[in-house]
Structure formats: C-alpha cells, structure tokens
Write a structure and sequence with these properties.
The protein is α+β, with helices and mostly antiparallel strands. It contains four helices and four strands, in the order H-E-H-E-E-H-H-E. The protein has a single domain, classed as Alpha-Beta Plaits (2-Layer Sandwich). The protein has a four-stranded antiparallel sheet. The longest helix has 21 residues. The relative contact order is 0.23.
C-alpha cells in the first residue's frame, strides 16, 4: 500500500510540474539570421529554359557576398495548384542576413552590382519581400 501511495505521489508531482511548465509562455530562441530577403524574378522570355538557367547561374554567384548567411535559389515547384499559390514567377532567391547592416552591405556589394549589370537583361520584373523575425 505504501509503495502504491509513493508511486501515486511521484507521478502526481511529475504531472504537476509538467503542467506548470507547459503553462509558461513560449519564447523561441532568437535566430542568428533574423532578416529574410526573398526576390522573385519574371523572365523576359518565360519559355526559355536557357534564360532561366542563365539567371539561376547568376543568382548563385551572390553566395560570394560575405554578409549572406544562407541562400536558396529556386524555380517554381511542381506542387498542387491552389488559389493561394502564385506560380507566375520563374526564379527566386531567398537569402538570410544577421542584421540590417548585412543586407545593406549586400545591396551595394560589387558582386551584387555585377549580377545586376550582367543578368538584368534576362528579367522583365523583380519583386522583393524583406522580413524581420519577430
């Protein structure tokens, strides 16, 4: 009987502590790359795989910029068609920076300026979304 009571008390104490801990507000760890920079490119020649691949090649050169912590270069995924999914673009770049200063450095960096000079003839439109982590 004493053993059952001890087990019950130990289990109750553990459950009580777990319940109390789960009631605490969630505070995620701050990211080391809180700024996301996402650019979408629309090609002048949307049916040209050669132009798409050339732009992808150009975007990938941007990884040389030291303030870019992470880069993802992509094309439209063959996922299911839904009203909320925009598939009108052709190439995207998603970059992460440690801070606003790093993103500002990227904007005026010679590698970025060379990219614009050498590849801007391929795109008709670019839309950029910059977001800070909250």
């Amino acid at each position: 009987m004493k053993q059952n009571r001890r087990n019950f008390l130990a289990t109750a104490a553990t459950l009580g502590a777990a319940t109390a801990a789960s009631a605490l507000p969630f505070t995620p760890a701050k990211s080391k790359t809180p700024l996301a920079h996402h650019a979408f490119f629309w090609l002048k020649n949307p049916d040209s795989i050669e132009d798409r691949d050339k732009l992808v090649e150009g975007v990938k050169t941007l990884h040389k910029i030291e303030t870019i912590r992470e880069i993802h270069v992509g094309v439209v995924a063959a996922t299911e068609k839904r009203d909320v999914v925009d598939t009108s673009w052709h190439v995207s770049e998603l970059m992460f920076f440690s801070d606003l200063a790093g993103q500002a450095t990227y904007q005026t960096h010679p590698v970025h300026l060379d990219f614009i000079k050498n590849y801007s003839h391929l795109w008709a439109k670019v839309v950029v979304y910059d977001a800070m982590e909250v």
